[in-house]
Write a structure and sequence with these properties.
With about 270 residues, the protein is mainly β. It has four helices and 17 strands. The protein has a single domain, classed as Jelly Rolls (Sandwich), CATH 2.60.120.620. A hairpin with a 5-residue loop joins strand 5 and strand 6.
Length: about 270
Amino acid sequence: MSQIHLNRELSSPTDAGVEAVPGAGLQLHGFEPFRLNESYSTFFATLHQTCLDLEADPYGDGSTRFRCYGRALLLPWSKALHWFPNTCNSDGREASEYYQGDFNPELGDKSRLFPPLPAQICNSGDLAEVIVDNFDRTVWQGFDRSAPIQVGVALMRLYVNRTYPIAKITPDCLHQDGEHYTFIHLIDRCGISGGDNTVAEVSQVGKLPVDTPAGRIRASFTLEERLESYAVHDPQVSHHVSGVVLDGAATEGWRHTLVIDFTPMSPRF
């Protein structure tokens, strides 16, 4: 991971022993870079192979962005995980529904149907452990801890080659996701430059980092090695990852990530 550049007005996540408690930086700053345990290396190698075969994002250009998605219920008191059944798209193929309201200005307030997360990944004990690792870094009000938490799990592949030399996320601006917490884990990157992360104040939603005053940016960094990760607390910050482009003489390149989010399902009136 490249050096993390923090806004000088913020204390460092390692100040006062904060880093000794997983998730403490997440609560203090609204984000936290960290690294998953090396014991997950074999599992992430499997995820990399899965990413190579992902279907195109139905809402992308069909050539540079690929993904699959699944939803589960997590019971906070037992850490038990129960996967939602898949639905079908207009062609009758299995799909998994994703809805984030109007948090994506490029796509509007509508549900999206993605290719489902493969069953062998859903049923993986390693994935369940990563989900619990992430959840244990979060903080919830007492009522939320006594109700199920919705977990979203996505595998994402940005791919570039000589014909399609740039790949971007959506939305391509500082944004919030609509989920309470989001965790991004790097699976693999090869033959690219870019993919630079920016975390900023909520007031900067809709802007590109280059148009954001330096004092409004909380941090900037790049996930460079497998298992490098970061988390954001959606109510506190906005975030963005820049597009990826071919690096040097490379003829193709990619960025593969595992994204896990948590949303409370307790009643709110």
